[in-house]
Amino acid sequence: MYHSLKLTKELSLSQHSSLAIRSSLNTALPTVSASDTAFTAESVFNYANEAIIITDAENRVVEVNPAFCELTGFSLDQVKGKTPEAFSILPLDDHRAKRLQRDEIQLRDRSKSQVSYRSHDGQFYPGMMSVNRVRDELGNIHHHVIVLADLSAIPSHARHLKREVYFDSLTGLPNLQLLTQLIQESMQHADEKQLPLAICSLDIDYFENINARLGQQVGDILLASFAQRISHLLFGDDVLARVGGDEFVLLLHHGVDEDFFAQLLASIRQPLMMDGQSVHLTASLGVTVYPHDDAQGDVLLRHANQAMYRAKQRGRDTFHLFDPNHDRMLKVRHEQRQRFIDALAQDELCLYYQPQVDMYSGSVVGVEALIRWQHPEQGLLQPAQFLPIIDTTSLEVDLGEWVIDQALRQLTEWYALGIALPINVNISPTHLLMSNFSQRLGELLSRHPDVPPAMLKLEVLESAAMHDVQAALQNMSRCQALGVSFAIDDFGTGFSSLTHLRQLPVSLIKIDQSFVRDMLSDQDDMAIVESVIYMANRFKRPMLAEGVETLDHAKALMALGCGLAQGYGIARPMPAQALPGWLASWPDRTEWFALAHALR
Ligand code: C2E
Ligand code: MG
Ligand code: MG
């Protein structure tokens, strides 16, 4: 997981390029001569923006680079043989952090910590110091490579501001304010180097319980210790920031994969020692990767947070990768739903009506109301083009109530024209299973007192009733008490058992059009139609065949004992105002009436 910085001639620049955050600082580094331009360790050493200090096994300085001299004002001669503390690179003043830091440095060959260092102007500035202990083949410490990055240079004006504006006082890590700027810099860096940048939001699981159990003070120490642990897992250019109580953000410049996050979680799971007690922590991680997620800095952070909440939902102690495509899809869905809400409010929806006839008598027994969207730009939309947008949302309830109300109005209107045909209305599963379904239906009916409730029939999907049989049964029987009856729609597609069919209070079974349409050419469909008709007859329930496209369908259905039909062969769904004309011309369709007579 770690890659250690070795002073070899082959070291490639790209691996250890300095953070772009330093580029804003106008450092006067030596100019490049043609012979110097090879990508060697020497050139990294000479041209890095970060101060680099090489110390021996005892941590005494043997070499410093020009950036070090530039940053601190010390020459090599002034610091040679001294330890970094001797020339004022100090751990943070917080004594707890100091203690932790020492322990950690003792333990690891690679560490990273917040320090403050004295610059050439005599002032102290925040820095990030990473120490790499390099060992020889026998495992003995050979030397140390110390890289000091000047954090105050990150926002170029930070030198004039107080430290606490940009750093969290407990952990010494960059805070949200600084992070926001670091993200910008990191994105720029990623663009320049054409490397991905992972933004990882980290939230400790149930930290509030730990605070409550161990007290705020121990909680604070734990957080500082936790921050230390995480920072040791990072590579040179990476950033760890604390953005809230137990919330951290990591900016990761190397190409991270799922293994990296699994390992990160695994090391978080290692117990932390607190006053002789071991404390177990887990965290939830949310990650988004720029430029795959090609968004602005603040949006990237939001996306990482969103993903972190998903990780929490998925049970915590896990990570979730933000998927920009999925997110775009959700956004489109959201916009479509908003558009649908407008359509409902602006009367862009309307009902078409498809007649249902009794083939034995030729009489029209009712109509089915079918929703259409007269879209101002896209023209007349069919239900399949927009119902999926609102599937399983509360908008289904809004639409359902609108449809019922509209159908009741239509009944009143037709009644005035002398047309008394019941209307079948489709009810979505979500709507049917609402606990106040029957109460709302009662209210809608009372708004149209001239309409006998028996003129309204509700078509419910077999699958809806199966979803929660008890709730469906309860709602259906309450509606029946209001005088409204039910039909079971698309029968044959929902795997309902005979027991349920017997239980459901339905007065009509509608055989799904997909079986009817192909029954003449497909033996399996014919078998289904035959069985449904047989079953419906056994349970003494009237049945209606949908999808009756031709007279041949009609004849076959009648021969099997199914008399009610609806389909393109009889009429396509039509606007309400077309219905009186169709009704008047229906008796002229003599072939249908001949059908009825032929069987008498
Ligand atoms: P459905 O309730 O099974 O309605 C019958 C569908 O079959 C209608 O499609 C109708 O136009 C079509 N159809 C009728 N006869 C024939 C035929 O002979 N051949 C063929 N190929 N198709 C025929 P539509 O209007 O596109 O509606 C599709 C589905 O959308 C409906 O199926 C229903 O499940 C749903 N739907 C329609 N209006 C509403 C509504 O107001 N509320 C709810 N929740 N769902 C609705
Ligand atoms: Mg229907
Ligand atoms: Mg149907």
From TrEMBL:
Residues 37-95 form the PAS domain. SUPFAM superfamilies: EAL domain-like, Nucleotide cyclase, PYP-like sensor domain (PAS domain). GO terms for biological process: regulation of DNA-templated transcription. Signal peptide: none annotated. CDD domains: EAL, GGDEF, PAS. Pfam families: EAL, GGDEF, PAS. Residues 333-587 form the EAL domain. This is Uncharacterized protein. It comes from marine sediment metagenome.
